[in-house]
Amino acid sequence: MKNEILIDLLDPPIVVGLENVEIMTNIGKGNAKLTLLDDKLYFDDREVKVGKYPFSSIDEDSTITGLDVIQYVRDQGNELYWQLLNYKILETLIANPELFPENLKQDFKGNPIWIALLGTTYLNPADDNKECVSFMGWFENNLVQCHIVLEDKWQPELLFAYVE
């Protein structure tokens, strides 16, 4: 079964649940197609992947922050940085949850998979105007979103979304 929707990436994102945020970074331009095909999500015909910060040392005592994760992605080369997915993907999936693939809902232990969208960063007045990113996960039969302050400790289970 194939479901798809067009997204206007030039349309400024509206961060759900947060008021008066200032968008700092929003990677993406023009229109893009988001497609669910055979339980895989595609962005302009490129499969959406999830990645993990590569250090096994991320645990409860880790000092890795969201800023470290974004720097890691940038260090991988400009190509990966520009392939990060932005908040418009989350906005679209919240409005169209049928597009969210089953294989990204839970890990093998049955825990929600949490995916950060590093392509959009914003200043959040509720967090003293600190730079944040949103992340999403399938929780209690709904797609939910949260945010993380980039200078705060990065949670080891948090992945990031990109396309190849």
Which secondary structure elements does this structure contain, and how are they paired or packed?
Blueprint: E1 2-8, E2 22-26, E3 31-37, E4 40-43, E5 46-51, H1 66-75, H2 78-81, H3 87-95, E6 114-124, E7 130-139, E8 142-149, E9 158-163
Parallel strand pairs: 6-9
Antiparallel strand pairs: 1-3, 2-6, 3-4, 4-5, 5-9, 6-7, 7-8
Question: In terms of per-residue confidence, which ranges show pLDDT below 50 for 5 or more consecutive residues?
Answer: none
Number of helices: 3
Count the beta strands: 9
| Helix fraction bin | 10-25%
Q: By helix and strand content, what is the structural category?
A: mainly beta
Rough shape? globular
Q: What is the H-and-E element order?
A: EEEEEHHHEEEE
Task: State Rg.
Answer: 15 Å
Question: β content, as a range?
Answer: 35-45%
Distance between the amino and carboxyl termini: 22 Å
Major sheet summary line = 9 strands, mixed
Number of domains: 1
Mean pLDDT: 84
